[in-house]
Design goal:
This protein has helices at about 10-25, 30, 85-90, 95-100, 110-120, and strands at about 35-50, 65-70, 75-80, 120-135, 140-145. It is of the alpha+beta class. Keywords: Membrane, Transmembrane, Transmembrane helix.
C-alpha cells in the first residue's frame, strides 16, 4: 500500500457527504421527530385567530392557524404562528404544502369573519378534507406530513 496522506481529505469529504445525505434523506423525518407510529388522517377544518394588537407593536404571535385533524376516531388540533416562514412551517408541525394547496374557502362576509377572528377565532370547514399522514409520538404529540 502506498502513502494514503493525499487521499485523507477526499475520504473525509466522502464520509461527511454520506453522513449528511443519510441524516437528510435516508433517516425518516418521523423518526427524527420521535414518532412511534404513523396513521392516515385528514385535515377537516381550520381555525384562524388574529391578534387585536397591531403587528407594528412587535406582537410575537399576530395570527395563529389551527388545523383540526381527524385520525383514529379522534380529533386533534395543531397550532402554528404566522411568524413562521413556509419552510419553517414545513419543518415544524404541519406541511406548508397542505395549507397552500387547501381548497379555497369562500367567505361571503369577510368583515364579519375578520371581526370573529379578532374576537377569539373563526373556524372554516374544509370540504373536501385534506389527507395527511399523522405521526404520533410517545407523549401523544402529533406531527403532520
Amino acid at each position: 500500500m502506498g502513502d494514503l496522506g493525499p487521499l485523507v481529505p477526499t475520504l473525509f469529504a466522502v464520509v461527511a457527504i454520506a453522513v449528511i445525505a443519510w441524516q437528510r434523506w435516508v433517516v425518516p423525518a418521523r423518526r427524527r421527530a420521535g414518532a412511534v407510529r404513523t396513521v392516515p388522517g385528514q385535515v377537516v377544518a381550520a381555525t384562524v385567530v388574529v391578534s387585536p394588537s397591531p403587528i407594528a407593536r412587535g406582537d410575537t404571535d399576530p395570527t395563529r392557524i389551527g388545523l383540526h385533524v381527524d385520525f383514529e376516531g379522534r380529533t386533534a388540533t395543531s397550532w402554528e404562528s404566522s411568524r413562521l416562514t413556509p419552510s419553517k412551517f414545513r419543518s415544524r408541525t404541519v406541511g406548508w404544502w397542505h395549507v397552500r394547496h387547501a381548497p379555497c374557502i369562500q367567505v361571503p362576509d369577510r368583515a364579519g369573519a375578520l371581526a370573529r377572528a379578532r374576537a377569539g377565532g373563526v373556524t372554516f370547514d374544509l370540504d373536501p378534507p385534506i389527507p395527511v399522514q399523522v405521526h404520533i409520538g410517545v407523549d401523544d404529540r402529533i406531527m403532520l406530513d
